[in-house]
Amino acid sequence: MASQEQLEQPNYEVKLGRLPTLTGKQTHYCAGCEHGTLTRLIASALNDLGLREKTVMVDSVGCSVFAHEYINVDAIQAPHGRAPAVMAGVKRVRPDLIVFSVQGDGDALSIGLLELMYAANRGEPISVFLVNNAIYGMTGGQMAPTTPEGMVTTTSPFGRDTRYTGPPIDASKLLAGIDKTAYVRRIVLPILPLPKTPDMYNANGAVQGAKIIENAFKVQMMGGFSFVEVVSSCNINWKMSILDSKRYVADVLSKLFPPGLYKDKFGIEKRA
User: Which of 60, 61, 197, 257 could form a disulfide with 80 if both were Cys (CB 3.0 to 4.6 A apart)?
Assistant: First the structure.
C-alpha cells in the first residue's frame, strides 16, 4: 500500500478500478492458468504506453481464441497457426498500427511454425506472445512440440519418447538465431514455490512481465520483430492440482526453458 508521503509525490500515480484496455468481461480460463495473468499484463502495457486506440490483436486458435473478449482493442481472427501472416498483412497495410498476437505452443510451433519463422526471418515489425504450457490446452491435452521427455499426454500415454519424436522445441533459442529478429525474451510467469522454503513464493516473472511486454511493444514501434515466450502451467491437462502444477514448472519447465534475454538488437532493456 502506498504511504502518505508517496501519495503526495507529484510523479506518483494511483491507479484505481479497471484498466480502459480491459473490457471487464470474466475470462473463460481455468483456475490456476497464467493466460489470465498475461491478459492483464498486456492490457497494462498497452495502457501505460497509450496504445489502445491504435492496436490490433490477431487471435490465434487455442486457449487464447477469445482473448479479444477481454482486451479492449480491435481484433481479427486468424486461421489456426496463421496469426503471424495475418499480423504481417495488417502491419504492411497500416504500418502506423501496433499489431500483436497471443499464441499457444501448439498453434505457433506445430501447425504455425513456418508462419512464425518466416515472419521473423523477414523482420516483420510485429509482437508475438507465446504461451508455452508444454501441452495442447484447448483440444484435450495432446503432446505439443514443447512437451518434456517423459510427460504423459493423451497422445503419449507412456510418456514422450524423444527417440521417436525428437526433443522439445526451444522457440526462444530458435528465433534468437534468426538475423532479423530484434527482441527475444522468455519469462516464467507462474508464482513458484521456493525449493528450500515451500511456504514462500517467487513472483519475479509476474512482476517483470509488464515491463518485458512493454519492451516488446516498444521494439515494434522501433521497427523490429519482438517475441516473448511465457512459460505457463496447465494443471487441468497435466492432471495435477494447481499447487503441484506450479511445482512442476519450478522443477521441470523452468530448467528445460530457462528465463532470460535471448536477443536485444536495439538495446531496449538498457534504455529502461
Answer: 61
Q: Please report, for residues 16, 163, 210, 249, 272, the alpha-carbon distance to residue 34 in angstroms, rounded to integers and kept in the order given.
A: 23, 31, 13, 12, 25
**pTM of the entire predicted model:** 0.91
Block residue for cell numbers 517423459: 150
Query: Residue 15 — very low, low, confident or very high, per pLDDT cuts 50/70/90?
Result: low
